[in-house]
Amino acid sequence: MKTTHSHHQKEMKPINRKALRAMRGKDFLNTTHYSREQLEALHALAFQLKHAHLYGSGTPPLLEGKTLAMVFEKPSTRTRVSFEAGMFGLGGHALYLDAQKTQMSRSEDWQDTARTLSGYTDAIMARVYEQRTLETLAKYSPKPVINGLSNSLHPCQILSDLFTIREHFGKLEGVHVMYSGVVDNVAYSLALGCAQLGVDFTLATPRMFHTNQAIWKQAQTIAKKSGSLMQHFDSMPPAKVLKSVHVAYTDEWESMHMKLDKAKLFPTLSKYQVNEKLLAQCAKGAMAMHCLPAIKGEEVNSSVMYSKHSLVWPQAQNRMYVQQALLVALLGDLDSKSSE
Which residues are in the Aspartate/ornithine carbamoyltransferase carbamoyl-P binding domain (predicted)? Predict the structure, then answer.
């Protein structure tokens, strides 16, 4: 931890407060709604908040008196706890709302929910099935709406994951990330985030799982400006590609909205597993990442997850610090003395 921290501290740029101020009061539905400079600034602020919490005088109360509504259609561990603990650490409050235990279970719609919650709270974070639900919340809420996950995208996860990669390697440019397995919301957000921040990205997914071409083309377009190399394979990449991979990333094969015949598909999908054999074919010092929860023995094996080649646990921890930075940018006063 000390080694990675010193690397990160050496490379991290000063906080671009102008870039963060431009985010105040806005929604965060997709990383692509923000500039590279703003995403970089969020990472710099997250590093400062993490350092203050772990090694300094404690997290400053930058969101004292602020309240975050957290609406969940789906089960959650990391998203709920990282946002709730993050708000608490910043001096604010977070309210957990299970959509099935509100009036939405009796047909109240998202428009009315947005209008109501925005009257009580300072921001809304929602973990939902459909991306259009977030768009509806954003349309009718005058307060910021944050995408805590949808079937299409998971931007908070990826913003944090790229922070973890930067923290470990001391940089993002020149790093090569490969996602292998069933293409999903995490893979799409990872492709977009890598393209925005100049990270080379390889997507390896079986042909039977169709890639959203609109999102992939968007990532390619962004990559042309940032200099990222984007590659897509419908099998595991050849050795010459693998030997340049620094991060082998995967996610569950079966998501909460998509059920698979895993027994039937195991012979195919097991070829994409993140394990010691795969890491041995990657670049020296390659690391494994997984957004969790993991089904050990399927998309990843246990020994890698708990090895020195795993970034899984710092990856989970960093969700809180990066989301704190996001909340401060959207809700906080970056000109106050406590933010110095």
Answer: 26-167
Q: Note if 251 is an active site residue.
A: yes
Q: With residue 311 as reference, give the H or E element that holds it.
A: none
Residue 143 three-state SS: coil
Residue of 122, 291, 309, 324 marked catalytic: 291
127 is catalytic: yes
* Per annotation, catalytic residue among 161, 194, 251, 309: 251
Task: Please check whether residues 51 and 180 belong to one and the same domain.
Answer: no
Claim to verify: residue 106 and residue 86 sit in the same structural domain = yes
**Residue 204 contacts by C-beta under 8 Å, 6 or more apart in sequence?**
178, 179, 180, 181, 233, 234, 235, 236, 237, 272
User: Considering the domain boundaries, does residue 340 fall inside one?
Assistant: no
Active-site residue, from 8, 43, 78, 127 = 127
Handedness of CA 154, 155, 158, 164 (dihedral sign): negative
- Find the angle CA(335)-CA(137)-CA(196) to the nearest 5 degrees: 60
pTM above 0.90, yes or no: yes
Asked if 156 is an active-site residue, the reply is no
- pLDDT, tens digit (0-9, with 9 covering 90-100), for 23-61: 999 999 999 999 999 999 999 999 999 999 999 999 999
pLDDT lower than 50: segments of the chain? 1-11
